[in-house]
Amino acid sequence: MTPYTGLIDRYRRRLPISDAVRIISLCEGNTPLIRLQNIPEVIERDVKVYVKYEGLNPTGSFKDRGMTVAVTKAVEEGSRAVICASTGNTSASAAAYAARAGIAAFVLIPEGKIALGKLAQAMMAGAVVLQIRGNFDAGMRLVKEVAARAPVTIVNSINPYRLQGQKTAAFEIIEALGRAPDFHCIPVGNAGNITAHWMGYQEYARDGVAKTLPRMCGYQASGAAPFLRGHAVDDPETVATAIRIGHPQSWDQAWQVNKESQGWFDELSDEEILASQKLLAEREGIFCEPASAASVGGALRDLASAKIPAGSVVVCTLTGHGLKDPDIAIRQSSARRVNVDATLAAVERAIMDNMT
Ligand code: F0G
User: Fold this and answer.
1) Mutation test of ligand 1: which of 159, 267, 319, 328 has the most ligand atoms closer than 8 Å to its C-beta?
2) What is the pLDDT of residue 282?
3) pLDDT tops 80 at residue 324
């Protein structure tokens, strides 16, 4: 068996990458599609719900799919530096792939508003971290302005190579299921990923690999829900900092996905998002970051109301790993932490006292 070497090698003929090019890869992609089997809302109904665990990519998020293509192309085109604005995951991914390529990375992040794990990743990979006194949307504006003047390649999802890489998640889902799902539930921030998935589903449908297309269901945090409001939001706020975005760059594309796939957008409160994150960890042992849980929270609600009907096959994207944001996890966990003396008697007593 030949070892897996990353998604560019796997899907090269479906990507804008020629044969002679030096590939910048960390073996991203090929993530597991896990069927949920314990969550009561799921087992009580005749539905198959799967999670696509994108947190198992090399830097712990789906961004790596896009970054391998974007950085490979940047290097091919002779770029010596990449730049992005980020709520955290893009910066972690850009920093890692730039390190792999041997080029510089500049990342603009909202000061104090990204999960600590993501900051650690960008710093460890040697990126220049510019903490701005402003949110992601301000950072995005600045990145566009500065890239027009300085020799840096933007690796946000406005870089079309990013979406090319990210569409491969849809390919993997179809290959794993042997068909397209009926519904694909996905968190929406900048709206690049929902757009990329739809590109992938359409490509496989067009080429006859799948016979059907899913309806694309995009979920936002209530405090950062421009697609629900119908217009940009100037001061987005949510505990799910990854999707704390008010001016999505792929606004028109996401509305087109919504229309073409006959899907919908919906919103979840911060409490609902955190409850879904916890439910997934406690019932299924799957740890995702808060933003990711919006997909499962939305799907479960739509299953309960039969908006997603019985008999459906549903895929929820878990965009990032739970370890990215340990602070929030520890704060909301209800697990017991028991301090005991380091003696057999004390440990045994603690076990007997806490047996459920
Ligand atoms: N989930 C996570 C964990 C994310 O990091 C992001 C986006 C999304 C969902 C939303 O995806 O933007 O394609 O709609 N994070 C970007 C970043 C903005 O900078 O890391 P989207």
Assistant:
1) 319
2) 95
3) yes
